[in-house]
């Protein structure tokens, strides 16, 4: 989403809370929305964290639910292979025993969550998006930051004792859906909305396509980042400059 950071205009020297952000119309990239400041050189105003090695969860905001109540805030994860498989196989949570599952922050995950098209062209695997989170305007994205990488273990689903894995299990494994086990700190959390993340990803995709057709490098400085709110209410930048797998590769002859 395109942002205008009011506090930056006044030269704030401390961390900046997200409630001081407001949307603005920025025609030539999003960097101007930070009052002309470099999103990757915050000078103590906000943290910058690379997108790689993060985990994400898309959570629909239920009717009459506040958006913040859809955030995941727990710090202890205790998934078992059986629980992961049971949750994948029990889409509707009929017995009420499903656990929270997670996705690595990769292109497939963004496609699965409706943040990018399911079909990105011949250079990317076609991914079927999850229908329950199709209304991206009513989705909260909980992000486990890379600072938690050494604190958590991925827990893969238990495989069936006999026979082939079900369609649900195959689909989940193809996307990278996993359980987690371990303990993190509240500072390892950040949050954004489905709308903001989708707009940022589509802006990156559109910029890459324009750059390819023009025969120039794409403008990472203006587009390769999103803002997220930390658990303490302060904003941070999530840096997509080194998110190498998400680079649009267009077919021969497309540059025109």
TrEMBL record:
Keywords noted in UniProt: Signal
Residues of the signal peptide: 1-15
Entry superkingdom: Eukaryota
Name used for this protein in its record: Secreted protein
Organism: Fusarium irregulare
């Amino acid at each position: 989403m395109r942002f205008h950071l009011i506090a930056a205009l006044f030269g704030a020297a401390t961390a900046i809370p997200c409630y001081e952000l407001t949307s603005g119309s920025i025609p030539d990239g999003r960097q101007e929305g930070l009052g002309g400041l470099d999103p990757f050189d915050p000078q103590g105003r906000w943290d910058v964290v690379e997108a790689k090695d993060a985990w994400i969860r898309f959570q629909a905001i239920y009717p009459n639910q506040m958006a913040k109540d859809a955030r995941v805030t727990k710090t202890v994860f205790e998934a078992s292979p059986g629980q992961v498989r049971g949750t994948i196989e029990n889409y509707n949570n009929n017995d009420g025993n499903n656990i929270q599952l997670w996705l690595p922050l990769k292109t497939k995950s963004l496609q699965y969550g409706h943040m990018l098209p399911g079909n990105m062209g011949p250079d990317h695997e076609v991914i079927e998006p999850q229908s329950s989170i199709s209304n991206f305007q009513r989705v909260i994205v909980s992000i486990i930051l890379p600072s938690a990488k050494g604190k958590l273990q991925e827990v893969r689903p238990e495989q069936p004792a006999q026979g082939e894995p079900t369609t649900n299990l195959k689909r989940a494994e193809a996307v990278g859906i996993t359980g987690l086990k371990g303990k993190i700190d509240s500072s390892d959390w950040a949050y954004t909305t489905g709308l903001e993340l989708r707009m940022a990803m589509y802006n990156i995709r559109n910029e890459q396509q324009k750059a390819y057709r023009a025969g120039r490098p794409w403008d990472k400085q203006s587009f390769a980042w999103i803002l997220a709110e930390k658990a303490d209410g302060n904003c941070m930048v999530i840096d997509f400059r080194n998110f190498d797998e998400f680079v649009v590769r267009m077919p021969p002859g497309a540059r025109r």
